[in-house]
Amino acid sequence: MAAMDKDSENKTSLKGSLSVLIPVYNAPYDLAKSLNSLAQVTTPLDIVVVDDGSRPPLQIPELIGSHRLILLRNRTNAGIERALNTGLRYILTQGYEFVARLDAGDICTPDRFAKQLHYMRQNPEVMLVGSYVEHIDTQGKPVFTQYVPLSPQDIRRQMHLNSSFVHPAVMIRCSAFRELGLYSYDYPAAEDYELFFRFVKRYPVGNLNEVLTFKEISPYSISLTKRKKQLRSRLRIQLKYFDPALKESYIGVLKTLILYLTPYNLILKLKQFLGIFKKKKMREQESL
Q1: Residue 201 CB burial class (10 angstroms; 0-12, 13-18, ≥19)
Q2: What pairs with residue 101 in β-bridges?
Q3: CA–CA distance, 168 with 192 (Å, rounded to integer)
Q4: How far apart are CA 108 and CA 111, in angstroms?
Q5: What is the C-alpha separation between 120 and 18, in angstroms, rounded?
Q6: Quick check: 131 and 177 in contact, CB under 8 A?
C-alpha cells in the first residue's frame, strides 16, 4: 500500500499536463543523478517518485529546478511492477495528460520532453513515443547506442524479436492506460515488454530518431540481477503474442532461448559491436 507525503497531497492543484514517473528502491545517489538531469529541463512537468520500501526511506526536496516533486511511498518493497502502478494510479487520478518514464540513474537531454511532446501534439493518434538510447557505464562513459525501429511496420515486427522501445525513454498518453489497464503482474521483470505489446496491438506508436535518454548499465539493474527471470517472462510474452505468419515470431523465440544460455558479458560485447557497426552505416547513408 502506498502513502503520499502530506506536503505533496496539499499541492495537487499545481499540476500541469506532463508527469515523469521514477520508481526507486534503495538508490538515493542514482535518483539524485536523474533529478539533477531533470533540473536542466525547461519543459513544465511534475516528477512523481515512488519509494518502493527503501531503508532508510528516501528523502527528496519539494522542488528540483522549476519542477515540483511528489513522493509516494510503498511501506514495503513490492517490486517494480507494483511501484510503477502505484505511481500510475496517482497520475491518473490527478488528470495528467502525459506520463514519461525515467529510471533512477538514467538521465535525459534538456530537450527530450519538448521534442516528445511536440511529436505527440502533432500526431494525436499516437499513444506512445520513444527514442534512441545511449547506454552508459556508472561513470557516464558511453558503452553502446540502442537504435530502435522507426516505421510502424518495423516497430510491429521488431516487437516479436524484442521490445521496440526502451522503457525509461518513453512518453505515453494517460488516456491509453484507462483503456488498456496498467502494468501486468504476470510477467516479472518484463512488465514493460508486455505493456508495449498491448500498445502496438491497439494503437499507433512511434520512435524519434535521436538519442534523448542516457541509460545507465548498473550491476544492480533488473536486467542483470533478474536476467533469467526476465528472459523466462519474455519468452512467455513472445508465445502469448506469437504470430505464425511472421518469421520474426519464430526468430524471437529462438533468440530468447539462446540468450538464456549465453553469458551476459558476451551479449554486452556483441551489443557494443553492433552499435558501432550500425552507427557507421548510418553515417555512410547520411553522407550520400
Answers
A1: exposed
A2: 21
A3: 10
A4: 8
A5: 12
A6: no
Provide the mean pLDDT of the chain: 89
Please determine, for residue 3, whether its predicted confidence score (pLDDT) is greater than 60: no
Which of 152-156, 208-212, 256-260, 279-283 comes out lowest in average pLDDT?
279-283
* Domain ranges for the chain: 2-287
pLDDT value at residue 286 = 60
Q: Half-sphere exposure of residue 37, counting CA atoms within 13 Å on the CB side?
A: 24
Q: How far apart are CA 160 and CA 247, in angstroms?
A: 9
- Taken in order 62, 133, 142, 42, the sign of the CA dihedral is negative
Length reported for the chain: 288
Q: Render the burial of 252-266: b for 16+ CB within 10 Å, e for the rest.
A: bbebbeebeeeeeee
What whole-number distance in Å separates Cα of residue 285 and Cα of residue 288?
Answer: 5
Greatest alpha-carbon pair distance for the chain in Å reads 58
pTM: 0.86
Domain 2-287: CATH superfamily, name plus number: Spore Coat Polysaccharide Biosynthesis Protein SpsA; Chain A (3.90.550.10)
Which helix H or strand E contains 34, and what residues bound it? helix 28-38
Cell output for 243 = 504470430
Q: Show the cell assigned to 234.
A: 519474455
Q: What are the grid coordinates assigned to 279, written together? A: 552507427
Contacts of 154 (CB under 8 A, 6+ apart): 164
